[in-house]
Design goal:
single chain, Murein_DD/LD_carboxypeptidase, signal, alpha+beta, hydrolase, Hydrolase, protease, endopeptidase fold (from Nostoc punctiforme), about 170 residues, 7 strands
Length: about 170
């Protein structure tokens, strides 16, 4: 065996050992408290299966101001369609007007299907979502489209103005 062949065999042997050693290494389990896992858990805990199907059907639809269909929907349009199709409730079209037709309750008493309102641009309500459970809600995000989000995130906590069921 030549010196070159010996080096090649040694290199292959070393690579094989490294490969086998890496295959046996323990991997850390994926934690189930990531935001995505918690959002998936909130979806799994939805009691109303029609609501679950509605959200799955709309998840990922892009945001479009004034939109009311799968080519794009805004937050108040999404809440409007959801309340009408799932709960048979008629809502005004704008989020600030929708905020006027709820029975306000404390955040700790929110229930599945309650509307949640936010003010990101000042004192007036300018965003709406629908509460699910365990601090999660679904809404049409201007940057991510229809998504399930955590109401406890600082951005939402700082902008939260109230929530409750539709009183119509």
């Amino acid at each position: 065996m030549t010196f070159s062949e010996s080096r090649t065999r040694s290199a292959i042997f070393l690579l094989l050992l490294l490969f086998l050693a890496s295959c046996g290494a323990r991997r850390q389990p994926v934690t189930s408290n990531t935001r995505a896992a918690l959002a998936a858990d909130a979806m799994a805990r939805i009691d109303n299966k029609e609501l679950y199907r509605f959200i799955n059907h709309w998840t990922g639809v892009r945001y479009r101001l004034g939109g009311l269909d799968k080519s794009g929907v805004d937050c108040s349009g999404f809440a409007y369609l959801l309340q009408k199709q799932i709960y048979g409730k008629e809502l005004p079209r704008r989020s600030r007007d929708q905020a006027g037709v709820i029975n306000r309750k404390s955040p700790s008493h929110l229930k599945e299907g309650d509307l949640v309102f936010f003010s990101f641009g000042g004192k007036d309500v300018d965003h709406v979502g629908v509460y699910l459970n365990n601090g999660f809600f679904v809404h049409a995000s201007t940057t991510r489209g229809v998504v399930v989000d955590d109401l406890n995130l600082p951005a939402y906590q700082n902008a939260f103005t109230g929530g409750g069921p539709v009183n119509r």
